[in-house]
Specification:
Layout: E1 5-6, H1 8-12, E2 20-24, H2 34-41, E3 48-49, H3 76-85, E4 93-97, H4 105-114, E5 120-123, H5 126-132, E6 157-158, H6 161-168, E7 174-177, H7 181-185, E8 202-203, H8 219-230, E9 236-239, H9 246-255, E10 262-263, H10 267-271
Parallel strand pairs: 1-5, 2-3, 2-4, 4-5, 6-10, 7-8, 7-9, 9-10
Helix pairs in contact: 4-9
Organism: Massilia antarctica
Protein name: Sulfurtransferase
Keywords: Repeat, Transferase
Length: 283
Amino acid sequence: MYTTLISAADLAGHIDNPSWVIVDCRHDLMNLAAGREAYAAGHLPHALFADIETELSGAKRGADGVFRGRHPLPVRADLVETLRSWGIDDDSQVVAYDAHGGMFAARLWWMLRWVGHPAVAVLDGGLAAWQAAGLALSTAPQSPRSGTITERAPLVTTVSAADVLDNIKGGKRVVIDARAADRFRGENETIDPVGGHIPGAKNHFFKDNLEPDGRFKDAAQLKAELAPLVGKPQDAIMQCGSGVTACHNLLALEVAGLPGAALYPGSWSEWCADPARPVATGT
């Protein structure tokens, strides 16, 4: 069972295994059609496509009309139905990949763990690593059978905006923001309507988890860099712009042997939508 990362060579050895499900998570926040277009132009053999906006996210507003963020979590039962439509069973090995250092694949990795499925890994180095190994892509359409995955107890934890606000008022949990340093400081904000960060948060840009070739740093290096930042992982909260790249930091923590941190799914996009919530800028 692969539960964090898998190499291109190891995946190639199982590429025709019918109990393995490969999911292409390529996406572009500024061009929502780009991921599907890239998939159509060439994808890993047997891979299916996951749409971040429609399949790996839920309604942006709750039943009360309150904005939940740009990529809120779907209802768990709805996610399970999506996973079944991809042919995923309880004993399937799932592999997610993208072409962005794992920033979108890690979202699916975390979401499968959220519905209690441990056998999920991210292709280390993504599409580039696959191609660098001389492995072929496919343009063949996929017609998955119906899967039988069931909803089980989550293997991960989440916190709400209210939890984060209470923590600001006197909690002891560390909040880690996965966005680039300039956006964290409140500069060059082009996605959300307000620049800045949650007061008291620390910044760890998700791309700092990677080597120059797009593969994750090894476990020892990740632990050396992340352990001083998060302290006790079970007391740490991971967030980002909309709950996507925070999952990259959560994956890095898992690789480092520092499991247990929580995700704030709404992240900055939900937080800054309410003017009553405090905002900090600078470092």
